[in-house]
Write a structure and sequence with these properties.
Blueprint: H1 4-10, H2 16-22, E1 30-32, E2 38-40, H3 43-47, E3 55-61, H4 71-84, E4 89-93, H5 98-102, E5 110-111, E6 114-117, H6 119-123, H7 129-149, E7 156-161, E8 165-167, E9 177-179, E10 190-192, E11 194-196, H8 201-208, H9 212-221, E12 223-227, E13 232-234, H10 241-248, E14 255-259, E15 264-267, H11 282-289, E16 294-298, H12 303-318, E17 324-329, H13 331-337, H14 350-370, E18 375-380, H15 387-398, E19 403-407, H16 409-412, H17 418-427, H18 444-455, E20 460-463, H19 465-476, E21 484-487, E22 507-516, E23 521-526, E24 545-546, E25 552-553
Parallel strand pairs: 3-16, 3-17, 4-15, 4-16, 8-11, 17-18, 18-19, 20-22, 21-23
Antiparallel strand pairs: 1-2, 2-14, 5-6, 6-14, 7-12, 9-10, 12-13, 14-15, 22-23, 24-25
Length: 556
């Protein structure tokens, strides 16, 4: 059986100009990066302002397990399936981070015969967006320390600087560090640390900015810490926003690539969903909506993380309304939620499946009942799935009024997604009343409790003293109307990764909150979630290589 990278390398790619032509994008908007990728100038949005938006389809998933769900693969295969049934369709995805690429997951551009290409480029440096984001982040960090060294006119309290440096790599050694050692010429020593680039507020700002003017305004609003009078200090007061925007002006332009079946795809931005808001850029989504009649996008991890933030943060800020939601699941993963070990998944086990099904059903109910959106469950089929197991999933979902469609896009590409495409087209015509999980007028505490109780089904929230103090401060500073961005383990509805399925009788512990004023939300850290991951005992990097001809292997 061919690996994902072998399948991708065997694909005969179309020139990016042909892909743009399929999307109806004139060459004058293209900035080519070789033959198979290009940036699209944001002036396209201005020129297409009067064109009606296409239908927006969100692909999300059950709570992830080591058995895999195939959310990105399904997203790409669904788009190819829509094209096969004659629809004008665009894909809008996130860019992969180098952290997971070299860490646990390996490549992240889909799988099997449902991938975006050039797969190696997308997984590695691509068009340099993440490097630009890291540079802008670290420019601000350098300007903070330089300002203090040069006399500290803003009276920044060096003990209360909240802005961290960033690097797009899993590196636990950088979580907590001391900078400016070596004497007076090197500045004032202080405790510092690194976040992974995808957790940087700059990433969130880039993904939520509507244009270059909005980008600069958001950069200026970044709170970098507090002064000696306990007043927030912003990047605008350091006059950093112009230079940061200059570093980001090209990164703001969406990247155009293609699927294996030449469906046009925007791949742009990449915030993690467990520590950030987990969606591709607003610019790319809007551009896709102005070029396609149907736009398929995805949000990271399970629907309690990526979909919640897509709906409560991105849609709220950008004024987007999804027409339909696809919830991806596998029988294998549901059996793991039911208590089976990964080594036992090949055998039929209806009891384990029934025990794990509440995880899927809770995600379905959240989408349909909390958010009021029509949904379909896409079962990413594996050869070991039995008819009895598939029938049980269908029975339980139909009891909630939601259809189940088998997805075979990994093996068959767009052909294996045609049935799902037909159901999605039907759902897009179903009337719905989209609503948020919480309203702007609630306090920050009430918003956190709303997500915990309505989405996670927790009994309540316990706020540790530092979190209470910071929440009260943020409310007093006028940030109380902002949405909340929950940083939580992706492996459970709770903040405990060991609680699988659909746990009950638990409380969520909030230990810290951070203001991301430029992004426009408050980050809420729960459990032991960290914004700088570490590498596993055997990182994926050990299997990645390149030969004398420049051919890369081992990405997936």
């Amino acid at each position: 059986m061919l690996t994902d990278i072998a399948i991708a390398q065997a694909c005969e790619k179309q020139h990016i100009r042909e892909v743009a032509k399929t999307a109806g994008i004139d060459e004058k908007y293209l900035e080519q990066y070789g033959n198979y990728k290009a940036k699209v100038d944001y002036s396209l949005l201005q020129d297409r302002a009067d064109r009606p938006d296409g239908k927006l389809i969100l692909v999300t998933a059950i709570t992830p397990t080591p058995a895999g769900e195939g959310k990105t693969t399904t997203t790409i295969g669904l788009a190819d399936g829509l094209r096969k049934i004659g629809k004008n369709v665009m894909v809008a995805l996130r860019e992969p981070s180098l952290g997971p690429v070299f860490g646990i997951k390996g490549g992240a551009a889909g799988g099997g015969y449902a991938q975006v290409v050039p797969m190696e480029d997308i997984n590695l440096h691509f068009t340099g967006d993440f490097h630009a984001i890291g540079a802008a982040n670290n420019l601000l960090a350098a300007m903070i320390d330089n300002h203090i060294h040069q006399g500290n006119a803003l009276r920044i309290d060096a003990r209360r600087i909240t802005w961290k440096r960033a690097v797009d790599m899993n590196d636990r050694a950088l979580r907590e560090i001391v900078v400016s050692l070596g004497g007076k010429a090197n500045g004032f020593p202080r405790q510092d640390g690194f976040d992974i680039t995808v957790a940087s507020e700059i990433m969130a700002i880039l993904c939520l900015a509507s244009d270059i003017t909005d980008l600069k305004a958001r950069l200026a609003r970044i709170v970098i810490g507090y002064d000696l009078d306990d007043r927030p200090v912003t990047a605008g007061e350091l006059h950093a926003q112009g230079a940061m925007a200059a570093l980001l002006k090209d990164a703001l332009k969406p990247n155009l690539v293609q699927t294996l079946e030449h469906t046009p795809a925007f791949v742009h931005g990449g915030p993690f969903a467990n520590i950030a808001h987990g969606c591709n850029s607003v610019t790319a989504t809007r551009m896709a909506l102005k070029t396609g009649d149907y736009v398929v996008t995805e949000a990271g991890f399970g629907a309690d993380l990526g979909a919640e933030k897509f709906l409560d943060i991105k849609c709220r800020m950008a004024g987007l309304t999804p027409s339909a939601v696809v919830i991806v699941a596998t029988v294998r993963a549901l059996k793991m939620h039911g208590g089976l070990a990964k080594t036992q998944l090949k055998n039929e086990d209806l009891a384990a499946l029934e025990k794990g099904l509440p995880n899927l059903l809770q995600h379905v109910e959240n989408i349909t009942q909390v958010y009021g959106l029509p949904a379909v469950v896409a079962i990413n089929r594996f050869p070991d799935d039995t008819e009895a197991e598939l029938a049980l999933v269908e029975e339980k979902c139909k009891a909630l009024g939601v259809n189940v469609v088998l997805s075979e896009v990994w093996m068959k590409g767009g052909e294996g997604g045609m049935a799902l495409a037909e159901e999605v087209v039907r759902l897009c015509e179903v009337p719905s009343e989209f609503r948020f999980c919480y309203e702007d007028e609630l306090s920050l505490k009430e918003k956190i409790e709303a997500v915990a109780k309505r989405i996670y089904h927790a009994d309540g929230v316990d706020f540790l003293a530092p979190a209470v103090k910071e929440l009260d401060k943020l409310e007093s500073l006028g940030y109380g109307r902002l949405p909340v961005c929950m940083a939580k383990t992706q492996y459970s509805f709770s903040d405990d990764a060991a609680k699988l399925g659909a746990p009950r009788n638990f409380r969520v512990t909030v230990r810290q909150v951070r203001i991301s004023a430029g992004a426009g939300f408050v980050v809420v850290l729960t459990g032991d979630i960290m914004t700088m991951p570490g590498l596993p005992k055997k990182p994926a990097a050990e299997n990645i290589d390149v030969d004398e001809n420049g051919v890369i292997t081992g990405l997936f």
